[in-house]
Every structure is written in structure tokens, then in C-alpha cells.
Design the sequence.
């Protein structure tokens, strides 16, 4: 049995995977709160993650927990967990969706020599979502906490630390700090100096470990708290997108995953670094030893959930209303920048609903438009990846939206690609469990290639498979062009 843990934005999930029977046997979830402020602050307390994890595992049977052979951890990317020498978390964890660090982004970029040089040397621009500006923010705003900082961790690293006592990081998640040279897979000294010229930050960065390595072993204190066997190995883990790539079988060139979660992501597998001179695509390492070019939007299910709650509808009612409304939402178009936006980089942007008149001003059109706009933003990611030389012929969906047949068909039509979905919707948690299996086999002396292992253990859901509808494809091609035009127009309001 293998345990996959996913520390998301809205919840913590724990998944049990039976490798012998090749199926998920149990999934548990516990909700998380969010600290939000008008300045763009989005944060959580690390202690909430541990409480939620304990709640999840308390629902597994004693026998199932006793049979766990290894653990893998997935976590929301980019968040900054500042750790003191004694393991104390020094401040609330600023998350990937925090946009309060715009000033710090400018400071770091200027010190380094401009955005073009950042992208050229590190692979990524300095954006509010990344970890680097969060470190400078702590220095600028909480100097007493910063003075005690001894270790910089990401969310999944912190869970690994809780489980093993080890302070380490793997290359995939590390590349999302914007401080890792993604070509050379090492910390960029010049970027570290740009973040803080007064301190050698390399002393606060943990060691880097390979994708199939063991992070350490479950120590007695965590084992007792969670009801798990002492000493079981913990895999390196990774960011949620990196683990979703594993959980959807996206570890070979030609494959693409679209994640319909709180944020929306499009990412492809690559055997070489893919760097976007414009900075729209994040140049990340994968958690498999390769690279994972990725485009992220800040608002995906955010858009649909806000609209659904506005009209006090259930999820099933939303689906019914959207399914019964024609493509294009009868002229209503949403630009869903409710949390600001990363792609395009507009951290101060606001959501807009356009095209309303007395004939189309109704809940059904606004609901469908919220869903369509989230997909349009992701389609821009596909276009950019192709422009950068990524050949893509296979698409997998994951995330909460992948459970909706309406979403699946809409993605297929807007992208003009066949869509497949795993039987398990928990791409990140499943990916973490499968990485743990891969690591465990490696420790046992087995060197099965990861793609072979995944092909053996992943099962597609034939019910949710979709083919593009030619009529809808043609209509959405026109509507997508209109959406891009609206975004370009709105940019001028927030730049």
C-alpha cells in the first residue's frame, strides 16, 4: 500500500493506492481556511495543514495504515514556509496566489538587471506567485522573523520535514522559486544576491535531491501522531503540478495535462529546457528528471465557484444550466481575473463580465461564460507551448473540473483535441503515491522506467473520454479570438 498526500489550496487530501490490485482504495479530504486581505495577501498557517492531514488519516482503517510501505507528498507550489533553527514556522505561509509582492518583484528584477536577463539566465521572470519575492517581502515587512530564518521550504517540503525531520527540496518544486537555474539544476548565486544582497541565502536553502530519491524515513513522533508505521520511506515528492504530471501519465514528450483546479494549468513533458523569452510559460524542471514547461492561470474553478455561489446553486444544478445553454453564452463573455492574473501578468486586475444586454442578462449565460472563459485562458497556454516547439498529440484532464462531463467536452471543443481522464480524479495525490511506488522499487533494486510503471498502473475512464465536436470547434475558434481581444483591451486598465 502507498500513501499519497496532497496539500492543496482548499483542502488536504490523503489517498491510499494498492499497487498489487492497481487501484485507489480510499481517499479522504479535510478543508483548509484561507487568510485573504485587499492588498493581495493569500496565506495559510502551516499548522492547519498538519491538523487537516491528521483528520484525513484518522479516517483510514488501522489495517490499511499498517500496510503502507512508502509515502509521497504533493503540495501547492511556490509558497514560502520560513523555518527557524528549531523548526518553528516564523510567519503565515504566503501562497502561490498571493499578489502582495509586486513591489518586491520589481526590486529583485531591477537588481538582477531586468526581466530579459532573469529569463535568459534563470529561465523565469520574477512574478508575484513565485517564492523569491515572498522572501524579500518577509525581510521588508517582518524583519524580526527574517532575522531568525534558517531554512527556506516550500509547502510539500514542510510536510516532508514534519514526517522525517529532514530539510530538503527536489528540483521540480525548487524551479518554481525563481532562484534555480533550470538548465544547470543549481541555485543561481546572482539571483540569490538580487533577493537579498545583505545575506548569503544559499545557507538557508536546503539540499537538492533527485526525483526517485528517498527524502528520509518516517520518524517516531509523526508516526505516533498519524498512526503509521515508524521508519517507512518518504519519497522526494514535488509540487502539485509535477505530481499531477505523474498522476496523469505525462512523463514523455508529446503529452499534455490540463488541470482544472482553483488555478488552471497547462503543462507538457519535455526532454530539454523550454524557455519562453516572453515569460508567459514557466520553465520548470519536472519531478521525474526532465522538464515541465507550464502555463498557469490564477482563476479556473475560482470563476465558476464564485458565479455558482452568487446564484446559490448546487454543483449539479450548475452543470445542468451550463449544458442547456448554447456555446458562446449568448454573447456574454467573462474575463475571470478575480484573483488578479499571472497569465497575462496582471496581479492587480479585476474580473469583468462583458456583452450584457436586456436579452442575455440571466444566470445561465453568466454561469456558462464563467466556465468558457476559464478554458479560453488555458487554450492560450496550448498555443504558446506549440509556438515554443512542443509537439502535443495527447491531452489528459485532472483537477476538480475533470469530474464534469460538461467541462471535459468544452475543453475538447475549445482545444480541438481528444480528451482523456484517469479513473481517479486525484491526479496530484495519485501522482505522489505512484512516485512513492517508483522510489520504493528503486530502493528494492528495481529500475523500471517511470513511463512503463505508469502505463501499468494508470487506467483511463472511457465514460469521460471526449472527441471534439466539429461544429462547436468552429464556433469556439471565433469566440476564443474575441476573448483574446477583450483581454488585450482590459490590460490597459491594469498596467
Sequence:
Amino acid at each position: 500500500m502507498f500513501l499519497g498526500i496532497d496539500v492543496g489550496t482548499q483542502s488536504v487530501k490523503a489517498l491510499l493506492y494498492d499497487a498489487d490490485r492497481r487501484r485507489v482504495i480510499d481517499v479522504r479530504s479535510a478543508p483548509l481556511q484561507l487568510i485573504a486581505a485587499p492588498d493581495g495577501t493569500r496565506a495559510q498557517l502551516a499548522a492547519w495543514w498538519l491538523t487537516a492531514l491528521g483528520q484525513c488519516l484518522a479516517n483510514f482503517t488501522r489495517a490499511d495504515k499498517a500496510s503502507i510501505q512508502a509515502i509521497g507528498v504533493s503540495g501547492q507550489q511556490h509558497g514560502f514556509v520560513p523555518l527557524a533553527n528549531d523548526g518553528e514556522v516564523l510567519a503565515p505561509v504566503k501562497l502561490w496566489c498571493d499578489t502582495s509582492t509586486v513591489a518586491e518583484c520589481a526590486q529583485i528584477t531591477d537588481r538582477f538587471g531586468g526581466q530579459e536577463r532573469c529569463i535568459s539566465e534563470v529561465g523565469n521572470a520574477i512574478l508575484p506567485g513565485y517564492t523569491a519575492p515572498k522572501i524579500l517581502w518577509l525581510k521588508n515587512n517582518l524583519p524580526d522573523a527574517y532575522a531568525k530564518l534558517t531554512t527556506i521550504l516550500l509547502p510539500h517540503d514542510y510536510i516532508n520535514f514534519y514526517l522525517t525531520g529532514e530539510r530538503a527540496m527536489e528540483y521540480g518544486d525548487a524551479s518554481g522559486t525563481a532562484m534555480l537555474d533550470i538548465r544547470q539544476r543549481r541555485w543561481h548565486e546572482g539571483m540569490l544576491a538580487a533577493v537579498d544582497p545583505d545575506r548569503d541565502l544559499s545557507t538557508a536553502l536546503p539540499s537538492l535531491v533527485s526525483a526517485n530519491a528517498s527524502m528520509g524515513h518516517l520518524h517516531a513522533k509523526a508516526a505516533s501522531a498519524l498512526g503509521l508505521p515508524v521508519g517507512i520511506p518518504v519519497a522526494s515528492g514535488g509540487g502539485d503540478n509535477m505530481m499531477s504530471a505523474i498522476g496523469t501519465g505525462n512523463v514523455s514528450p508529446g503529452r499534455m495535462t490540463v488541470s482544472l483546479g482553483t488555478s488552471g494549468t497547462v503543462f507538457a513533458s519535455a526532454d530539454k529546457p523550454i524557455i519562453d523569452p516572453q515569460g508567459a510559460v514557466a520553465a520548470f524542471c519536472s519531478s521525474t528528471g526532465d522538464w515541465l514547461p507550464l502555463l498557469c492561470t490564477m482563476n479556473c474553478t475560482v470563476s465558476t465557484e464564485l458565479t455558482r455561489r452568487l446564484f446559490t446553486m448546487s454543483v449539479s444544478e450548475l452543470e445542468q444550466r451550463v449544458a442547456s445553454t448554447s456555446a458562446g453564452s449568448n454573447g456574454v463573455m467573462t474575463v475571470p481575473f478575480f484573483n488578479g492574473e499571472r497569465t497575462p501578468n496582471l496581479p492587480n486586475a479585476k474580473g469583468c463580465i462583458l456583452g450584457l444586454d436586456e436579452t442575455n442578462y440571466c444566470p445561465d449565460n453568466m454561469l456558462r461564460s464563467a466556465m468558457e472563459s476559464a478554458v479560453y485562458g488555458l487554450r492560450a497556454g496550448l498555443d504558446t507551448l506549440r509556438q515554443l516547439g512542443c509537439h502535443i498529440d495527447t491531452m489528459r484532464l485532472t483537477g476538480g473540473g475533470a469530474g464534469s462531463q460538461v467541462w471535459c467536452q468544452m475543453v475538447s471543443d475549445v482545444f480541438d483535441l481528444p480528451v482523456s481522464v484517469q479513473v481517479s480524479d486525484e491526479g496530484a495525490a495519485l501522482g505522489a503515491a505512484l512516485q512513492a511506488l517508483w522510489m520504493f522499487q528503486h530502493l528494492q533494486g528495481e529500475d523500471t522506467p517511470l513511463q512503463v510503471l505508469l502505463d501499468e498502473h494508470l487506467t483511463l475512464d472511457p465514460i469521460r473520454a471526449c472527441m471534439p465536436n466539429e461544429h462547436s470547434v468552429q464556433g469556439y475558434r471565433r469566440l476564443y479570438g474575441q476573448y483574446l481581444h477583450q483581454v488585450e483591451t482590459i490590460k490597459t486598465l491594469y498596467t
In short: The chain has 18 helices and 23 strands.
